[in-house]
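Summary for the funding panel

The consortium committed to producing paired sequence-structure records for every protein in the target list. Below we show the first two records in order, beginning with the earlier of the two.
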Amino acid sequence: MTLTFDIKADGLAWMKIRLCLKFAGREEYGHTANLCAKLLLLGAYSFVGTVPRLMGQTMTTPPMSLGADACATISADGPQAGTMPEMGPPFEVATVRPSGPDVQQSFISKVTPSGRFMAANQPLQNLVVLAYGGKRGSTNVVDERKRTDSEKFDVNAKVDDAYLAGWDKLSDAERVERIKPMLRALLADRFHLKLRAEMRPTPVYALVQAKGGAKLKMVGPPGVEDPDEQQKRKDRDPAAKAPPGGAFYISGNWIGNAEPIDNLVGLLAGLSGADRIVVDRTCLKGFYDFKLHISQDPDAPTAPEQIQEQLGLKLEPRKELVKTYVIESAQKPSMDGAELP
């Protein structure tokens, strides 16, 4: 039997909660009524939460006592298992080269407002994570090729000017999203990459609200930034704010400014040192301001403990079905493409 609830969430979008209940033989699930009641309470919470936002106020996120199953259902996103994201247009020009044997530096750059993208000393698996993945630390890629090499590559690419309209007004995260389909096309063309997608039981960390709820300040969507704030960040001014919709590290603190919850989950995956995929099971929606300091003092609590204390969010080890991209085959990349200055 399938029950579907349609709830008007925050006055801006419809949130569809689909709860699938399976009955086998004479087995009965006594928690069914309780779970459905929690889902309906979530809808009521979503509606009530719109009032202060519509009045231009901010609010601190209250605790939410949803069961893990309900939260997982609401948080699930992305394409269904087995489907692959679409390829995009090609880069205007791109070079792919094996990294030199003495190269020490390893990075994946931000995408500049002019459409320039660079990666250095990266294995193919990392490039696949970027091209097909969601937020940082949330994408599972498995390489099934039988090989012994660990070759790494440098990528230098430029977006065609025809697609650059308005790029100077996009955030770093938005520009990365724009180039992902182009990077998928590049991997297919140069590496002859073949992937499949499937759901696999995978050890993960679920980011959930700690007892007492998240200690985050809910705010409205990110606005337009004052150019003076950009200059403050360049000058490393201690009073500098993070860019709207992003986070900024200064004076030992991470400062979030109307940060989407997806981005925050990715940031915490990196800061916590998690050695597993991190999935969002917070049940939080919207944009948040926050301040986080991770002490490196030897006597300080662990990074996950500091995150829980300051932000009211914790990592729980679980095993969940995770969409996994499996590398079936790939070739050494073709070296065509013009050199970029």
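The next record, for a separate protein in the list, is shown here:
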Amino acid sequence: MRFIWPLDNHAISRDFYYRGSIYIGGQHMAIDIPANRGAVVKAVAAGKVREAGFSDINGNYVDIGHDAGWRTKYRHLMEPAFVNVGAAVFQGQVIGRVGSTGWSTGPHLHFDLWNASRQSPEAVYKVGVWAHNPELYLGQEDDEMDEAEARRIAKEEANFAVKVNRENQDGFNQHLINLIRQAITAAVADHAAGPHTGKDEVSEARMRDIAREEDDRLEVTKR
């Protein structure tokens, strides 16, 4: 089974062996991949969505089942996953965006790689599954990904970029609408108040006088 990286960034801030009291058994048994908020998260392999939801610990998350007993889980997403339970996903499909929901101190992807049975010596038993070190399995597409698969991934990323651009444009359009409404409201209020008198009219008359004086000076200079 081949797994691609779920993010374009391959840096790891907490590895599989990281120890902490908040983890089951005291070991991380997953990897944390830091990234900017909103960075796209991809399915590492084709499969079917087992779970998708929100919890206090995981934040927004999605759990995908794959062939040969493999499962992957993507946690702390910025918003609900883009795929629903039961949906089929292909390798490289955008399934969400990096966030910091749930038990998280900053934007990153907490990524789990599980199997129903032990596939390598480092695997640790964890509540009915064997947790495996993702670093040993990710990135296998570098030499083996075929052209059709690469095109499909590129198309999915392009579609996602169009979606984000459309959302940004919609937000900008709404901003313009709000400005126009404010201008109309101000104009209506100004009209209801009646014609301006007093100081504004005096100021305008004074400005005309200054302009006339400047014209007279200009005429004198010409002579």
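Regarding this second record: The first strand starts at residue 31 and ends at 34. The radius of gyration is 30 Å.
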